[in-house]
């Protein structure tokens, strides 16, 4: 007995409906299971029928034409399914956004709000999947303005939940976002959390948070908060050959940006005070071991790291020379 004899026409249409949508295999399974529940004694025959039917409807993706798959997935998501199905749908939505750009561009603000609302889901995994979907939308210039609305919530998630996957997804979105002035207070409160992520051992999260801190370090309003942030005593161990080259390069770029910031005349016009365990003391304090750490990286096997180390050393030496010249000018004018 063939599969089509076991399923009525409505169920067969549902099977075709879901099978032709990539990423919804679980939903297809549920529909098929409901259709053959009364025919368990024919399992072997049914399995052959399923394989036969599936082979007749191969999954295809036409990147230039709208398949309707993204619309179907969003429609199913609106029905508030269980957590597992919700995660599967979000995964499929993310995949569709990347694969079928023309269809993703036609999504409405309501569709994006639906995904954004899942940042408040009780399940941490759903939050991460929602972040991935929003990240996919953020790659579309047409949707970037809408995505900005969720930046405050993403900052809150990244700085209050300790999970590497969430940090990576959230920071990717923050790195793609425009950091408007009204976010500075929220960012200022989150700097200690960003610094903790940097000092954790997840290299992917470290890379994303370094990119973000580099951006923040170029905001004059946040520079002091970054420099005065407390760090672990072994912070300089981050300048180690054990770290991946791309992470090391971004660490060095961060140092260079911070050094440029503290030598800005406007920043120097204020007499700043730093905590003993601050990032400033670790990097630029009198007892800092940063110079020796930099020297040990000059022979790093990756050329990009070598080049970046030399740039940082030159930048630091130039700053010292400028300080010495300023001191000489001050002393000569006083005499």
UniProtKB/TrEMBL annotation:
It comes from Geotrypetes seraphini. Pfam families: Arm_2. PANTHER family: ARMADILLO REPEAT-CONTAINING PROTEIN 12. Gene3D superfamilies: Leucine-rich Repeat Variant. The gene is ARMC12. It comes from the Eukaryota. InterPro entries: ARM-like, ARM-rpt_dom, ARM-type_fold, Armc12. Residues 69-267 form the Armadillo repeat-containing domain. This is Armadillo repeat-containing protein 12. One of its GO terms (cellular component) is nucleus.
């Amino acid at each position: 007995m063939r599969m089509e004899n076991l399923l009525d026409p409505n169920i067969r249409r549902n099977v075709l409906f879901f099978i032709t949508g990539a990423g919804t295999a679980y939903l297809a399974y549920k529909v098929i299971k409901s259709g053959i529940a009364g025919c368990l004694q024919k399992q072997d025959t049914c399995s052959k029928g399923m394989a036969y039917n599936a082979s007749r409807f191969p999954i295809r993706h036409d990147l230039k034409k709208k398949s309707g798959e993204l619309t179907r997935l969003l429609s199913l998501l609106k029905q508030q399914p269980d957590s597992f199905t919700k995660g599967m749908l979000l995964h499929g939505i993310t995949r569709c956004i990347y694969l079928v750009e023309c269809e993703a561009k036609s999504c409405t603000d309501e569709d994006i709000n639906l995904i954004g609302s899942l940042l408040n889901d009780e399940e941490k995994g759903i939050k991460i999947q929602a972040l991935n979907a929003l990240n996919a939308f953020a790659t579309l210039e047409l949707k970037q303005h809408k995505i900005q609305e969720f930046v405050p919530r993403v900052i809150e998630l990244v700085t209050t939940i300790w999970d590497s996957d969430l940090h990576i997804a959230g920071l990717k979105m923050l790195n793609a976002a425009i950091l408007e002035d009204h976010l500075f207070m929220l960012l200022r409160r989150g700097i200690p959390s960003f610094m903790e992520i940097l000092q954790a051992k997840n290299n992917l999260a470290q890379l994303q948070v370094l990119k973000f801190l580099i951006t923040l370090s170029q905001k004059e309003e946040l520079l002091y908060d970054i420099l005065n942030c407390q760090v672990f005593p072994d912070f300089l161990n981050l300048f180690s050959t054990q770290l991946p080259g791309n992470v090391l390069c971004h660490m060095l770029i961060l140092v260079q940006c911070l050094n440029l910031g503290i030598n800005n005349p406007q920043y120097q016009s204020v007499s700043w005070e730093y905590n003993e365990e601050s990032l400033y003391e670790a990097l630029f304090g009198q007892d800092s071991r940063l110079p020796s750490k930099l020297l040990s990286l000059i022979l790093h096997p990756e050329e990009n790291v070598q080049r970046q180390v030399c740039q940082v050393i030159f930048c630091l030496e130039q700053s010292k020379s400028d300080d010495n010249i300023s001191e000489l000018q001050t002393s000569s004018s006083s005499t």
